[in-house]
Write a structure and sequence with these properties.
It contains three helices and four strands. With 112 residues, the protein is an alpha+beta fold. It has one domain: Alpha-Beta Plaits (2-Layer Sandwich), CATH 3.30.70. It has a four-stranded antiparallel β-sheet.
Length: 112
């Protein structure tokens, strides 16, 4: 069975985060997405120090879906170089971890 991952993503605003989250769930690339509005980010971009208000997303997925999720985010994100960082889940509620795995499995034909 595929290992569960938390994927951390930063994005420009809550509306873009909500739209991306829905697409990830709809395409079975994620089981659940948490959206944290109003984080402050300080970083260097093109040689200049930047300070921006952003939204953070924590996405639950599996190793089997991680590559597809990363590519999907890169294609549907407004940033030129979006932050997409995966952290392996080492433990937790076995029932929840099983639920995550079930949610990202492809639906068989004929299922609703």
């Amino acid at each position: 069975m595929s290992r569960v991952f938390w994927v951390y993503i930063t994005i420009g605003d809550k509306q873009e985060a909500a739209e991306l989250a829905e697409k990830l769930i709809r395409n079975r690339l994620a089981a659940c997405v948490n959206i944290f509005d109003g984080i402050d980010s300080v970083y260097r971009w093109e040689g200049e120090i930047q300070t921006d208000r952003e939204v953070a997303m924590v996405v639950k997925t599996t190793a089997a879906r991680l590559g597809g999720l990363t590519e999907f985010v890169k294609q549907h994100h407004s940033y030129q170089c979006p932050c997409v960082v995966a952290l392996a889940v080492e433990g937790g509620n076995p029932d929840f971890l099983s639920w995550v795995k079930e949610q990202v499995e492809p639906i068989e034909r004929g299922d609703a």
